[in-house]
Design goal:
6 helices, two-stranded antiparallel ribbon, 13 strands, alpha/beta, Rossmann fold, single chain, globular
Amino acid sequence: MTSNVNDLSLYPEPPRGLIKWLSHLILLPKQKYLQNRVNRTVTETVLGRSFLVPPSVFNPVIFRTGRYLAEYIASDDVILENNPNGRQKTTLDVGTGCGIHAIFAAARGYDVTAVDINRDAVHAAIKNVQQNNLTKKITVLHGDLFAPVAGQKFDLVLCSLPKFRGEPETSFEVGWKSNDVIERFADGLPEVLKPDGVALVLLTTHGDDRGMIEALITAGLTVTPVKRNHFGMEILTIYAVRHLKANGKESPNDMG
Protein backbone atom coordinates (compact mmCIF):
# COMPACT_ATOMS: atom_id res chain seq x y z
CA MET A 1 0.00 0.00 0.00
CA THR A 2 1.09 3.60 -0.41
CA SER A 3 2.40 5.78 2.38
CA ASN A 4 -0.08 7.92 4.25
CA VAL A 5 0.45 10.67 6.81
CA ASN A 6 -1.91 8.76 9.09
CA ASP A 7 0.25 5.60 8.96
CA LEU A 8 1.55 5.35 12.53
CA SER A 9 4.49 3.19 11.47
CA LEU A 10 6.01 6.33 10.00
CA TYR A 11 6.10 8.12 13.33
CA PRO A 12 8.09 6.44 16.12
CA GLU A 13 6.89 7.19 19.63
CA PRO A 14 9.30 9.74 21.17
CA PRO A 15 11.49 8.41 23.98
CA ARG A 16 9.73 8.61 27.35
CA GLY A 17 10.95 10.96 30.07
CA LEU A 18 12.37 8.30 32.39
CA ILE A 19 14.26 6.56 29.59
CA LYS A 20 15.69 9.87 28.38
CA TRP A 21 16.73 10.82 31.93
CA LEU A 22 18.48 7.49 32.54
CA SER A 23 20.23 7.69 29.15
CA HIS A 24 21.41 11.22 29.94
CA LEU A 25 22.71 10.05 33.33
CA ILE A 26 24.73 7.30 31.65
CA LEU A 27 26.11 9.77 29.13
CA LEU A 28 27.25 12.36 31.71
CA PRO A 29 30.74 10.85 32.30
CA LYS A 30 31.37 10.94 28.55
CA GLN A 31 30.19 14.49 27.90
CA LYS A 32 33.49 16.28 28.56
CA TYR A 33 35.38 13.79 26.40
CA LEU A 34 32.83 14.15 23.60
CA GLN A 35 32.86 17.95 23.83
CA ASN A 36 36.64 17.97 23.42
CA ARG A 37 36.31 15.87 20.26
CA VAL A 38 33.70 18.21 18.78
CA ASN A 39 35.93 21.25 19.32
CA ARG A 40 38.97 19.94 17.44
CA THR A 41 39.85 18.10 14.27
CA VAL A 42 39.61 14.36 14.85
CA THR A 43 39.83 11.14 12.88
CA GLU A 44 36.85 8.82 13.21
CA THR A 45 36.79 5.19 12.14
CA VAL A 46 33.69 3.39 10.87
CA LEU A 47 33.81 -0.22 9.63
CA GLY A 48 37.55 0.02 9.06
CA ARG A 49 37.45 3.28 7.10
CA SER A 50 38.92 6.51 8.48
CA PHE A 51 37.38 9.98 8.22
CA LEU A 52 38.96 13.33 9.08
CA VAL A 53 36.37 15.60 10.72
CA PRO A 54 37.20 19.27 11.44
CA PRO A 55 35.30 21.11 14.22
CA SER A 56 33.17 23.07 11.73
CA VAL A 57 31.78 19.86 10.20
CA PHE A 58 29.09 17.68 11.75
CA ASN A 59 30.73 14.64 13.33
CA PRO A 60 29.02 11.44 12.06
CA VAL A 61 30.19 9.31 15.00
CA ILE A 62 29.78 11.56 18.03
CA PHE A 63 26.27 12.49 16.92
CA ARG A 64 25.52 8.93 15.78
CA THR A 65 23.30 9.73 12.79
CA GLY A 66 26.00 9.68 10.11
CA ARG A 67 27.45 6.42 11.33
CA TYR A 68 24.00 4.83 11.54
CA LEU A 69 23.18 5.54 7.90
CA ALA A 70 26.70 4.62 6.75
CA GLU A 71 26.45 1.19 8.38
CA TYR A 72 23.12 0.63 6.67
CA ILE A 73 24.59 1.58 3.29
CA ALA A 74 27.42 -0.87 3.86
CA SER A 75 25.19 -3.78 4.85
CA ASP A 76 21.88 -3.55 2.99
CA ASP A 77 21.42 -6.02 0.12
CA VAL A 78 17.76 -5.37 -0.68
CA ILE A 79 17.46 -1.68 -1.49
CA LEU A 80 21.08 -1.24 -2.57
CA GLU A 81 21.02 -3.71 -5.45
CA ASN A 82 24.37 -3.31 -7.12
CA ASN A 83 23.93 -2.91 -10.88
CA PRO A 84 21.15 -5.51 -11.31
CA ASN A 85 20.64 -4.54 -14.95
CA GLY A 86 24.31 -4.40 -15.85
CA ARG A 87 24.42 -0.60 -15.97
CA GLN A 88 26.49 1.67 -13.77
CA LYS A 89 24.30 3.14 -11.04
CA THR A 90 24.61 6.65 -9.67
CA THR A 91 24.27 8.19 -6.22
CA LEU A 92 23.70 11.74 -5.01
CA ASP A 93 24.80 12.41 -1.43
CA VAL A 94 23.08 15.60 -0.30
CA GLY A 95 24.78 17.36 2.61
CA THR A 96 27.76 15.04 2.47
CA GLY A 97 29.57 16.49 5.49
CA CYS A 98 32.88 14.64 5.83
CA GLY A 99 31.85 12.36 2.95
CA ILE A 100 31.10 9.23 4.96
CA HIS A 101 27.91 8.24 3.09
CA ALA A 102 29.42 8.98 -0.32
CA ILE A 103 32.41 6.79 0.49
CA PHE A 104 30.36 3.80 1.61
CA ALA A 105 28.09 4.11 -1.44
CA ALA A 106 31.13 4.22 -3.73
CA ALA A 107 32.49 1.15 -1.98
CA ARG A 108 29.25 -0.59 -3.00
CA GLY A 109 30.00 0.19 -6.66
CA TYR A 110 28.05 3.40 -7.21
CA ASP A 111 29.36 6.48 -9.02
CA VAL A 112 28.75 9.22 -6.46
CA THR A 113 28.22 12.96 -6.58
CA ALA A 114 28.53 14.52 -3.13
CA VAL A 115 27.24 18.03 -2.38
CA ASP A 116 27.55 20.31 0.65
CA ILE A 117 26.93 24.00 1.28
CA ASN A 118 29.70 24.15 3.91
CA ARG A 119 33.07 24.74 2.23
CA ASP A 120 34.90 23.18 5.17
CA ALA A 121 32.83 20.04 4.65
CA VAL A 122 33.68 20.01 0.96
CA HIS A 123 37.41 20.22 1.72
CA ALA A 124 37.13 17.50 4.37
CA ALA A 125 35.15 15.23 2.05
CA ILE A 126 37.73 15.61 -0.72
CA LYS A 127 40.52 14.68 1.67
CA ASN A 128 38.58 11.67 2.93
CA VAL A 129 37.79 10.51 -0.60
CA GLN A 130 41.50 10.65 -1.40
CA GLN A 131 42.42 8.88 1.83
CA ASN A 132 39.97 6.07 1.02
CA ASN A 133 41.29 5.76 -2.57
CA LEU A 134 37.93 6.51 -4.20
CA THR A 135 38.74 9.59 -6.29
CA LYS A 136 37.62 7.80 -9.47
CA LYS A 137 34.22 7.03 -7.97
CA ILE A 138 33.31 10.26 -6.16
CA THR A 139 32.94 13.88 -7.26
CA VAL A 140 32.54 16.46 -4.47
CA LEU A 141 30.77 19.74 -5.26
CA HIS A 142 30.07 22.91 -3.29
CA GLY A 143 26.51 24.18 -3.34
CA ASP A 144 23.02 24.21 -1.86
CA LEU A 145 20.99 20.99 -2.05
CA PHE A 146 20.29 20.10 -5.71
CA ALA A 147 21.59 23.29 -7.35
CA PRO A 148 24.99 21.81 -8.38
CA VAL A 149 23.29 18.84 -10.12
CA ALA A 150 20.40 20.61 -11.85
CA GLY A 151 19.06 18.51 -14.72
CA GLN A 152 20.65 15.27 -13.52
CA LYS A 153 18.83 12.19 -12.17
CA PHE A 154 20.16 9.51 -9.83
CA ASP A 155 19.41 5.91 -8.91
CA LEU A 156 20.09 6.54 -5.24
CA VAL A 157 19.86 9.73 -3.17
CA LEU A 158 21.28 9.83 0.35
CA CYS A 159 20.11 12.38 2.89
CA SER A 160 20.95 13.12 6.51
CA LEU A 161 20.16 16.81 6.37
CA PRO A 162 19.63 19.34 9.20
CA LYS A 163 16.72 18.05 11.27
CA PHE A 164 16.23 20.93 13.71
CA ARG A 165 14.28 24.10 12.99
CA GLY A 166 16.00 27.46 13.38
CA GLU A 167 18.46 29.88 11.82
CA PRO A 168 22.05 28.56 11.92
CA GLU A 169 24.50 31.05 13.38
CA THR A 170 27.77 29.20 12.64
CA SER A 171 29.11 26.94 9.90
CA PHE A 172 28.86 24.04 12.36
CA GLU A 173 25.15 24.71 12.99
CA VAL A 174 24.50 24.54 9.25
CA GLY A 175 24.94 20.78 9.61
CA TRP A 176 21.97 20.35 11.95
CA LYS A 177 19.75 23.45 11.90
CA SER A 178 17.69 25.15 9.18
CA ASN A 179 14.41 27.02 8.78
CA ASP A 180 13.35 25.54 5.46
CA VAL A 181 15.75 22.83 4.22
CA ILE A 182 13.18 20.09 4.93
CA GLU A 183 10.61 21.57 2.56
CA ARG A 184 13.17 22.50 -0.09
CA PHE A 185 14.65 19.00 -0.07
CA ALA A 186 11.22 17.37 -0.36
CA ASP A 187 10.15 19.69 -3.19
CA GLY A 188 13.34 19.10 -5.20
CA LEU A 189 13.77 15.36 -4.64
CA PRO A 190 11.31 14.15 -7.33
CA GLU A 191 13.30 16.02 -10.00
CA VAL A 192 16.63 14.31 -9.22
CA LEU A 193 15.32 10.82 -8.46
CA LYS A 194 15.03 8.43 -11.39
CA PRO A 195 11.58 6.86 -11.94
CA ASP A 196 12.74 3.60 -10.35
CA GLY A 197 15.18 5.24 -7.95
CA VAL A 198 15.15 5.35 -4.16
CA ALA A 199 16.23 7.92 -1.58
CA LEU A 200 17.42 6.90 1.87
CA VAL A 201 16.50 9.60 4.39
CA LEU A 202 17.68 9.45 8.01
CA LEU A 203 15.51 11.13 10.64
CA THR A 204 15.68 11.43 14.42
CA THR A 205 13.06 12.10 17.06
CA HIS A 206 15.36 14.92 18.22
CA GLY A 207 14.37 16.87 15.10
CA ASP A 208 11.28 17.58 13.01
CA ASP A 209 10.88 14.05 11.66
CA ARG A 210 7.13 14.48 11.22
CA GLY A 211 7.67 17.66 9.18
CA MET A 212 10.04 15.88 6.79
CA ILE A 213 7.77 12.87 6.31
CA GLU A 214 4.73 15.01 5.62
CA ALA A 215 6.70 17.22 3.21
CA LEU A 216 7.88 14.15 1.26
CA ILE A 217 4.35 12.75 1.01
CA THR A 218 3.02 16.15 -0.05
CA ALA A 219 5.63 16.10 -2.84
CA GLY A 220 4.00 12.91 -4.21
CA LEU A 221 6.48 10.39 -2.81
CA THR A 222 6.02 7.21 -0.79
CA VAL A 223 7.81 6.90 2.54
CA THR A 224 8.70 3.48 3.98
CA PRO A 225 10.57 2.90 7.27
CA VAL A 226 13.28 0.29 6.63
CA LYS A 227 15.39 0.43 9.80
CA ARG A 228 14.75 1.85 13.25
CA ASN A 229 16.66 1.82 16.53
CA HIS A 230 15.96 3.23 19.99
CA PHE A 231 19.07 4.73 21.57
CA GLY A 232 17.46 5.88 24.80
CA MET A 233 17.55 9.62 24.25
CA GLU A 234 16.48 9.42 20.62
CA ILE A 235 15.07 7.09 17.99
CA LEU A 236 16.72 6.94 14.58
CA THR A 237 14.79 5.79 11.52
CA ILE A 238 15.96 5.28 7.96
CA TYR A 239 13.21 5.76 5.39
CA ALA A 240 13.15 4.56 1.78
CA VAL A 241 11.51 7.23 -0.37
CA ARG A 242 10.27 6.48 -3.88
CA HIS A 243 8.06 7.93 -6.58
CA LEU A 244 4.40 7.15 -5.95
CA LYS A 245 4.35 4.52 -8.69
CA ALA A 246 7.83 3.05 -9.10
CA ASN A 247 8.12 0.75 -12.10
CA GLY A 248 4.41 1.13 -12.79
CA LYS A 249 3.24 -0.20 -9.43
CA GLU A 250 2.74 1.26 -6.01
CA SER A 251 5.57 0.92 -3.54
CA PRO A 252 5.14 -1.17 -0.37
CA ASN A 253 4.95 0.46 3.03
CA ASP A 254 6.11 -1.97 5.70
CA MET A 255 9.16 -2.13 7.89
CA GLY A 256 11.97 -4.36 6.62
